[in-house]
């Protein structure tokens, strides 16, 4: 019972971070019909920005988080201007290769800027690392803080879509870009906003995740795969599906690592992607035919 409760809490915490990564992937895909393969590197780069602010410059963690999110938004907007806008009328392969190119550029920049200080950088914990017992359940305060932060980010994101004019225009463009253009929505700006918002969500996930792990330039691809698996499982066009998929992936990973073998942690995401594509290609909450990927 003690092990199960610990694994479930760990899985839900990690799954909440995967859900944030998946949300960013889905936001860009819904608006543009393209998977941003640089999403993981945007996540990684934002984590390093937060490390620089908090560790090297002494900025308080609550201040470093929104600054890193703002940096992530700018990087996402730049991705749109560099890799998507000039190729907007090109075929899907060209768009995919452009985002892959951006990923390698960001990874190289991270090595140039931070790699010389060591491939693995630690981020100070924001709470006590010592576990505490709540009844028969072992709880690590750091995990609770990360889980609470992820829930706040998800709620803020949902409010942005439902209550703001920009969020409603993004939804309208995602539903039908031609109709959105006809009613006067500048879809080019919405695409930029979508890339920026997706990267900002990834940045929030990176800052929340940083105290739980180590930062290194190659970490982006691993988290992208986990987020992509969550998005595929939930449905590449469904925002609630991305959250559900992230939580399921996190719990599956934790249980597989705890009860089977730690090596299953890394392969479980690939297994989920293959099973979903075979059994239900639109995902648990996805609907309709998938657009360009």
UniProtKB/TrEMBL annotation:
CDD domains in UniProt: TM_PBP1_LivH_like
Coiled-coil region list: none
Family to which this protein belongs: Belongs to the binding-protein-dependent transport system permease family. LivHM subfamily.
Transmembrane parts of this sequence: 6-27, 34-53, 59-78, 90-114, 134-161, 190-216, 228-252, 264-283
GO cellular component, one term: plasma membrane
Keywords: Amino-acid transport, Cell membrane, Membrane, Transmembrane, Transmembrane helix, Transport
Subcellular location, principal: membrane
Subcellular compartments: Cell membrane
GO biological process: amino acid transport
PANTHER family: AMINO ACID ABC TRANSPORTER PERMEASE PROTEIN (PTHR11795:SF445), BRANCHED-CHAIN AMINO ACID TRANSPORT SYSTEM PERMEASE PROTEIN LIVH (PTHR11795)
One Pfam family cited in the UniProt record for this chain: BPD_transp_2
Lineage: Bacteria, Pseudomonadati, Pseudomonadota, Alphaproteobacteria, Rhodospirillales
Record's bilayer topology term: Multi-pass membrane protein
Any GO MF annotation of the entry: transmembrane transporter activity
Superkingdom of this protein's organism: Bacteria
Residues spanning the signal sequence: none
Name listed for the protein in its UniProt record: Amino acid/amide ABC transporter membrane protein 1 (HAAT family)
Organism name: Stella humosa
Family annotation (InterPro entries): ABC_transp_permease (IPR001851), BCAA_transport_permease (IPR052157)
């Amino acid at each position: 019972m003690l092990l199960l409760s610990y694994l479930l809490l760990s899985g839900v915490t990690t799954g909440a971070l995967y859900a944030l990564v998946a949300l960013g992937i889905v936001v860009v895909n819904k608006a543009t019909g393209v998977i941003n393969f640089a999403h993981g590197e945007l996540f990684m780069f934002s984590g390093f920005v937060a490390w620089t602010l908090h560790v090297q410059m002494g900025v308080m963690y609550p201040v470093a988080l929104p600054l890193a999110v703002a940096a992530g938004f700018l990087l996402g907007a730049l991705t749109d201007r560099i890799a998507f806008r000039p190729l907007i009328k090109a075929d899907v392969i060209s768009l995919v290769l452009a985002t892959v190119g951006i990923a390698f550029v960001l990874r190289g920049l991270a090595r140039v800027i931070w790699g010389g200080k060591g491939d693995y950088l630690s981020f100070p914990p924001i709470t006590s690392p010592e576990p505490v017992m709540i009844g028969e359940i072992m709880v690590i305060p750091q995990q609770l803080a990360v889980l609470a932060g992820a829930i706040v980010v998800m709620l803020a994101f949902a409010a942005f879509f439902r209550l703001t004019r920009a969020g409603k225009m993004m939804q309208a463009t995602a539903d039908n870009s031609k109709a959105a253009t006809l009613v006067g929505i500048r879809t080019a700006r919405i695409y930029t906003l979508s890339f920026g918002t997706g990267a900002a969500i990834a940045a929030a996930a990176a800052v929340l995740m940083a105290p739980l792990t180590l930062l290194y330039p190659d970490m982006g691809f691993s988290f992208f795969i986990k987020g992509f698996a969550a998005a595929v499982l939930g449905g590449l066009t469904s925002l609630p599906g991305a959250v559900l998929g992230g939580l399921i992936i996190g719990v599956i990973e934790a249980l597989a690592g705890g009860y089977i073998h730690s090596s299953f942690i890394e392969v479980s995401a690939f297994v989920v992607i293959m099973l979903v594509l075979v059994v239900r290609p639109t995902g648990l909450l996805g609907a309709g035919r998938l657009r360009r990927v």
